[in-house]
Design brief:
- This protein has twelve helices and 16 strands.
- With 367 residues, the chain is α/β, with parallel strands linked by helices.
- The strands form five sheets. Strands 4-3-2-7-14-15-1-16 form an eight-stranded mixed β-sheet, sandwiched between helices. A two-stranded antiparallel ribbon has the order 5-6.
- Strand 2, helix 2 and strand 3 form a beta-alpha-beta unit.
- Helix 1 packs parallel to helix 2, helix 5 crosses helix 9 and helix 9 packs parallel to helix 12.
């Protein structure tokens, strides 16, 4: 049996037209009808980095929150901290950015929380059945709530080629250590010239793999004396868990970004599959507007838009909705290939189908 993917076409750049189309889709599909009074409804989204202007617009989010609140349920928006330098590296800056970009409670009608704590360390650890990633750390409410809404902005991606619902869940619904593990098989190391020897990573490391070492000689541009200490990781003891990444506040922990692309895709599937298995009711909406070559973590106002506006997709199947969006973007030409993006998403889709995340066959129901 095929999955259902609902589609309303919107070519316009006009925000009012987009909000009107979203309202019509929600009225036709009625995806929130099973929500109970006072039920907590987590709504996953990303606000994009500070320079990104193409992320999901808060007015679209407001429409969705309004529909959920009509049922007397209690929606809240959430995201997690990222692993690269920027304004989403910790919860304080992340929340300030959310407020400045229009995602405050008074604007959208629901609170916005950072689900993995101030430094991206908080969460519950889970062992998962995967050949590619053995355990993950995810926000503690996962497993406690029945329902989940995932709002995604369709974009290209430097590693997976396409970023939509699956990437939003796999990267966006785990704590920072798990993001590091998904991105890299190699263990982190300390950038000596950035380390101030504060000792936070040493205290945090569960394997006691980090210790202080004396600097042998000053490095160019630094005035410290020989013998001054810095932290160093014993690679033989290191578990690759990424806890030091959360502990360091000085960007002194180095991450390897050159992972095998197919392994990266399969790790994302396994993480997304586990997280979604903890929710009874799941619904996904993807906005095919302003589809940029780079994801919202990287894109700026000058980013390449490589597809015309598509519209809004909605489904209870995260794999089907991602496949449908890629098919619509590639309907008249292979836009991903022409733009130079990788086709790693094909591996991601095939592996996702094999793992039971969703279906590749779908019925596209036009609203």
């Amino acid at each position: 049996m095929k999955s259902y993917v609902y589609f309303i076409e919107v070519k316009s750049d006009d925000l009012e037209a987009r909000c009107g189309a979203l309202q019509k889709l929600l009225e036709e599909v009625n995806p929130f009808r099973s929500y109970k009074k006072d039920e907590f409804i987590p709504v996953k989204l990303t606000i994009g980095d500070s320079q990104c202007v193409y992320n999901t617009h808060p007015e679209l989010v407001k429409v969705i929150i309004s529909e959920i609140r009509k049922l007397k349920a209690k929606p809240f928006l959430f995201d997690t901290n990222v692993i690269y330098k920027g304004e989403r590296l910790n919860a304080v800056d992340h929340l300030n950015l959310a407020q400045s970009k229009g995602f405050g409670h008074t604007k959208v009608g629901a609170p916005f929380i950072i689900a993995d704590g101030v430094f991206g360390h908080d969460g519950k650890e889970h062992v998962i059945d995967s050949d590619y990633i053995k355990k993950i750390k995810a926000p503690s409410f996962i497993g406690s709530l029945e329902s989940l809404v995932v709002l995604s902005h369709a974009t290209g991606h430097i590693l997976s080629g396409y970023a939509g619902a699956i990437k939003n869940i796999a990267m966006g619904m785990c704590s920072r250590p798990t993001k590091q593990v998904q991105h890299s098989s190699l263990k982190p190391h300390i950038i000596e010239k950035k380390c101030i020897a504060c000792g936070c990573c040493i205290k945090t490391c569960p394997a006691q793999a980090i210790s202080s070492r004396a600097r042998l000689a000053p490095q160019s541009g630094h005035s410290f004396d020989p013998g001054e200490e810095y932290a160093a990781i014993d690679q033989a003891k290191c578990l690759g868990c990424g806890e030091c990444l959360c502990a360091c506040k000085f960007d002194a922990v180095s991450i390897n970004w050159s992972e095998d692309h197919d392994i990266f895709a399969k790790r994302m599937i396994d993480v997304a599959h586990f997280i979604l298995s903890k929710f009874k009711n799941k619904f996904f909406m993807t906005f095919g507007f302003d589809i940029t070559k780079e994801c919202d973590c990287i894109s700026t106002k000058n980013e390449l838009i490589f597809s015309e506006n598509i519209g809004i997709l909605a489904s209870a199947d995260p794999l089907a909705i991602d496949k449908a969006m890629v098919d619509l973007v590639n309907k008249h030409r292979d836009a991903f290939k022409e733009t130079g993006l990788l086709d790693t998403y094909k591996t991601m889709f095939e592996y996702g189908h094999k793992k039971g995340l969703g279906k590749l066959d779908y019925n596209l129901i036009k609203i």
